[in-house]
Amino acid sequence: MADEQRGRAGADLSGTGDRTAPPAGRAPWSPSPLQLDRDRYRRRAGVRSALVAAVSTVVLGAVLVLGLTSTPGWPRIQASFLVPSSAWAAVPDVARGLWLNLRIMVVCAVVVFVLGVAVAVLRTLRGPVFAPVRWLATAYTDLFRGLPLILVLLLVGYGVPGLRLQGLPGDPVVYGCVALVLTYTAYVAEVLRAGIESVHPSQRAAARALGLGHAATLRHVVLPQAVRRVLPALLNDLVSLQKDSGLVSVLGVVDAIRAAQILTAKEGNFTPYLVAGAFFVLLTIPMARVTDAVARRWGTPGTGGAV
Amino acid sequence: MRAEAPLLSMRGVRKAYGRTVVLDGLDLDVAAHRCVVLIGASGSGKSTLLRCANLLETVDDGVVEFEGRDIADPRVDADAVRARTGIVFQAFNLFPHLSVLDNVTLAPRRVHGVPRAEAEDRAVAMLRRVGLADKVRARPDDLSGGQQQRVAIARSLVNDPVLMLFDEVTSALDPELVAEVLGLLRELRQDGVTMVVATHEMGFARRVADEVCFLDGGRVLERGAPQQVLEDPREPRTRAFLRSIVAAGRM
Amino acid sequence: MSAPRMRLLGAAAVLPLLALAVGCAPAQEASPAPATGSGSGSAACAPGALPTLTGGTFTVGTDDPAYDPWFSDGDPSNGKGYESAVAYAVADRLGYSRDHVAWVTATFTNAIAPGAKTFDVDVNQVSITDERRRTVDFSSGYYDVAQALVTLDSSPIAGVTSTAGLAGAKLGAQVGTTSYETITDVIEPRQQPSVFDSNDLAVQALENGQVDGLVVDLPTALYLASAELDGGKVLGQFPVTGTPEQFGFVLDEGSALTACVTQAVDALRADGTLAALQQQWLTSSAGAPELT
Predict the structure, then answer these.
(1) Which phi and psi angles does C147 have, rounded to 5°?
(2) What topology does CATH give the domain C58-144+243-287?
(3) Which of B32, B132, B145, C209 has a CA that sits 20 to 30 A from residue A148's CA?
């Protein structure tokens, strides 16, 4: 029981001295011959495993490559998906389209987060006077989690400009972003609401006990913890948003996938699609690693589950 | 000397959760600069009493007078009342996403409007007082239980509350860490802080309390000087409770 | 888990992957290519007995929705509209009566993409280009295409009379079409054109004012201006330079029917059927000025 209260290993034991240096009067420890033997065995076994892993990976890779390229269908596959000239031609256009995808993702992500926090907070307001606000927020999340994104895109992207109201923007990218924001805010609000409700009530009690009002408690105590708790889910939604940013192409905008589609039609093979796919994956992998690092640094509870 | 009105005065307080009545017409007076210790079995209402005193719970009936005003009145600004009292819980309840320093400066900066530099100076001074000056940048997770509890105490004290409430603050700690926290409470008593302490630690009660109140059945059954209540109680139920404490080896 | 067992598992995991790879052999051709190849004119075209997908039935593919004036009322099988009529005429030449012609839906992009087809021929305003010939077969052309620009009277470009005047315009076209290439190669506007999955979305955008004009083939432009758009007009047609663009039937790469279908189309052109059908279904293009 004492260990549980000591926090992480190596922490100072309520100020009773440093446990890293040996107590006075005893020679510093060095490993016994038995322990050296054990270490030697472990080292050798480790090297052996690493070697086996390396060799088997190489062999497996070679087998797969040889196996694939010698199948009767390989030349067709190559001509359909792996034409180097098409890949080369595709890179500049797809990259330019991807730049649009990125900008859409960044702008929409920021807006979605802000609005998502707002809707989540509205849904968690307590007290009968806030009931209409809660119902509105619930209706909003239900509606936009129910509507397929492409439907929202078509409705907003073609329907709204069709009203020909004064002062409406003309750029289809704006409408695409509005549709993305409307849909993703609903999902993110639900995730954040789960996070808010998972913060222990004793935290709120402690904050109120210090005299913090509802808004201050939310802002300084509840929301920071809520966001940290649902960070993996939020970052998942971000990665998903990056992909869905491509759906804006249905409004006529040329993004990475549409650029690949134009080239596919022109070149007569599907290599540009592979190029676009590769770009997206290359974008996602760093994002996934960064989000993992952020989650680790902020000490998201539960990361102790690693075996 | 003129008799001063008690700082905290609870009269006829009733609190029920569902059908369970926890406080049943309870009366309690706490004079300024006094240390009142609450003892009683689990479920006798000690925690509830403390939470009603600083409006973390609303009373079902009765008067809670604080600094001469009935704070059970719904028109009273509860946040303002809570800004003048401090409460320390059994489970520390430090904010895990903030450093120790930020935990302690949060209320001064956000509730009392103290500028950041001054708040940090005050916080460091308070942390030094509780013996944790070197842990200013640490996270709550890095500290032992006793250290976390001392940070919680510092966090409450830094706002200069007129009334400090302690809810079984050593019950979750190792015996050796209990001593360090109780030592701090004794220092606070010597500094003249008005305290209401709910605890099982009878030794502390005997040495530090000005008055001991035994809670039973939702009321203060017996109250008086520690020597009288702990060594020679009048009520049979008090006697039975103290016997069980001795049997558990805690006296 | 012990190391040897893990190795065994690893080896076992390879096998299904290999099986998958080996199994992905190309499908055998449904019918062998004719020994004489698809270019020679003297291939035997037994009436009503060609090596079609379904014996005795001539399957024609087109996109959904099927636009005027190439089809009518969105129903390709009613024989109304230029392409519907030509398709039935070709089928008739090949010995398939109306009852033996079946229609299937095939999107424009799928029709010209590599891969097995769900139709014997596809008729969908597909221009014959060398790039497309790499992946599909074409019959000879049944219509000489001109690209045109359709816009609204209220559009900022409504008064433009030359291609150069379009340099600042926001134009739109359907993805993968020669109309799109007209924008990028002939007009070369400063703003990137909008690209749409289908022409009806493009028309929506034009009506909303999100694009200033659409590039489509001339008959479609005339139809849109007269029947679909409110206040639409054909700004003009683009001059034909070099070899004229033509619409042709799309067939599967190396299809056995290519020679016969080509023969049929040539015969229809020779005896004036194509001209008559054009007269019947396609508005005269004399009214559309040339944009130089």
Answers:
(1) -85, 145
(2) D-Maltodextrin-Binding Protein; domain 2 (3.40.190)
(3) C209
CATH topology of domain C147-237: D-Maltodextrin-Binding Protein; domain 2 (3.40.190)
| A·B CB contacts under 8 A | 95
Radius of gyration of chain B (CA): 18
Point out the residues of chain C with pLDDT beneath 70. 1-8, 10-44, 284-287
Say yes or no to pLDDT of B247 above 90.
Answer: no
Contact residues on chain C for A82, CB-CB shorter than 8 A: none
Taking contacts as CB-CB distances below 8 angstroms, the residues of chain C near A266 are: 131, 176, 181
Cis omega (within 30 of 0) on the bond before C65?
yes
Amino acid (1-letter code) at residue A229: R
Residues in chain C: 292
Does residue A63 form part of some domain?
no
CB contact under 8 A, B142 and A225: no
Asked whether the beta carbons of residue A170 and residue C210 sit closer than 8 angstroms, the reply is yes
Cβ-nearest to C22 among A71, A80, A158 = A71
Q: What is the C-alpha to C-alpha distance for residues A291 and A231, in angstroms, rounded to an integer? A: 8
Tens digits of residue pLDDT in C87-141? 999 999 999 999 999 999 998 888 888 888 899 999 999 999 888 888 899 999 9
Distance from CA of residue B203 to its chain's centroid? 17
Domain at A119, CATH number = 1.10.3720.10
Q: What residues of chain C lie within 8 A of the CB of A80, using their CB?
A: 114
Nearest to A14 among B82, B107, B144 (CB): B144
Total number of domains in chain A: 1
Do you find a cis peptide bond into A232, omega within 30 degrees of 0? no
Measured between beta carbons, the chain C residues lying within 8 angstroms of A47 are none
- Residue range B113-132: average pLDDT? 92
Are B97 and A208 within 8 A, CB to CB? Answer: no
DSSP states along A92-107: HHHHHHHHHHHHHHHH
Going from N- to C-terminal start, the domains of chain C cover 58-144+243-287, 147-237
Beta-bridge partners for C251: C137
| Residue A15 pLDDT > 50 | no
d(CA A276, CA A260): 6
Phi then psi for residue B220, to 5 deg, are: -80, 110
A18 in a structural domain: no
